[in-house]
Amino acid sequence: MQEYGLRISRAKYKKKLKSFIYYEKRYNFENSTIKELRISYKFGKLEDQVKHQLFSILKQRNHVDTTQTIIVHYKDSLKAKNKFPQKDRIVTFEGGSHEYQISYNSFVYSDIQCKLRYKKTNQFIIFLEPMMATP
What does the pLDDT average to over 64-90? Predict the structure, then answer.
């Protein structure tokens, strides 16, 4: 059982697999199977100034406790409908990384499902509207 190509314990593997952050990739051979954890989402870090501005908005407008861990799930929803692929697909890059490309219908469906899922778990979604720059 591997994460990033490194062996980890079965207990740690199972715990991580239960998280929405990971998914399992299996490689079946004649005499064995290799299971590998892969990350479902790309993670990054905000620059300090951007982070400060975002946290200020979240705290002021939405009363979010910014001392807690915050995960932002970003989707570019400004893409034109005709810019989406006709069907869902996975594009694989050198080195094994990949990217999911979804159709417009899948985009709309996943947006609806996301809202429903967070309503059920008693979490909330914040929709941020762009602020107009003041001169």
Answer: 80
Q: What's residue 134's pLDDT?
A: 39
For residues 38 and 23, is the Cβ–Cβ distance under 8 A? yes
The residue behind tokens 């591997």 is: 2
Above 90 in pLDDT, residue 87? yes
Phi and psi angles of residue 90, each rounded to the nearest 5 degrees, phi first? -115, 125
How far is 20 from 114, CA to CA, in rounded Å?
Answer: 13
Q: List for the chain the helix, strand, coil content (%; round to 5).
A: 35, 20, 45
With beta carbons less than 8 A apart as the criterion, state whether 37 and 3 touch: yes
The residue type of 65 is: D
Are the CB atoms for 103 and 85 separated by under 8 Å? yes
Same-domain check for residues 83 and 56: no
Q: Domain of residue 81: give its range.
A: 75-123
CA distance 3 to 22: 10
Amino acid of residue 22? Y
